[in-house]
Amino acid sequence: MTKIIMFHGKECPHCHIMMPLADRLIKEAGVEIEKLEVWHSKENADKMRKHEDLIKKSCGGELGVPTFLDEENNRAFCGEASYEDLKKWAKKK
Questions:
Q1: Which end of the chain has fewer CB atoms surrounding its CB within 10 Å, N or C?
Q2: What is the DSSP letter of 6?
Q3: What is the pTM of this model?
Q4: What b-and-e string marks burial along 42-68, b requiring 16 or more CB atoms within 10 Å of the CB?
Q5: What proportions of the chain, in percent to the nearest 5, are helix, strand and coil?
Q6: What is the CATH superfamily name and number for domain 3-91?
Q7: Cα separations in angstroms, 34 against 2, 38, 44, 61, 64
Q8: Cα–Cα distance between 36 and 29 in angstroms, integer?
Q9: pLDDT per residue over 37-92, tens digit each?
Q10: Is the dihedral of CA 30, 71, 67, 82 positive or negative?
């Protein structure tokens, strides 16, 4: 199964909305998600910037949070969304 990275910010209100949906996806859909906080961790922010071109291309030219990254399939999903939309994206190959 593909591993997803969720880049998020500790104080980000959109991230707070998406975090329970990510947790639900892990529990109910068996998706593996690694959560990396980028606002207070230079190491995690550097990991996110490593994928800057892909994220900006997929996210309307922005490098923001929350961002879900599928490195294996070279895809990103950004911002707030419904559980159904996030699940559909996560399960797509």
A1: C
A2: E
A3: 0.94
A4: eebbebbeebeebbeebeeeebbbbbb
A5: 45, 20, 35
A6: Glutaredoxin (3.40.30.10)
A7: 11, 12, 11, 23, 17
A8: 20
A9: 999 999 999 999 999 999 999 999 999 999 999 999 999 999 999 999 999 999 88
A10: negative
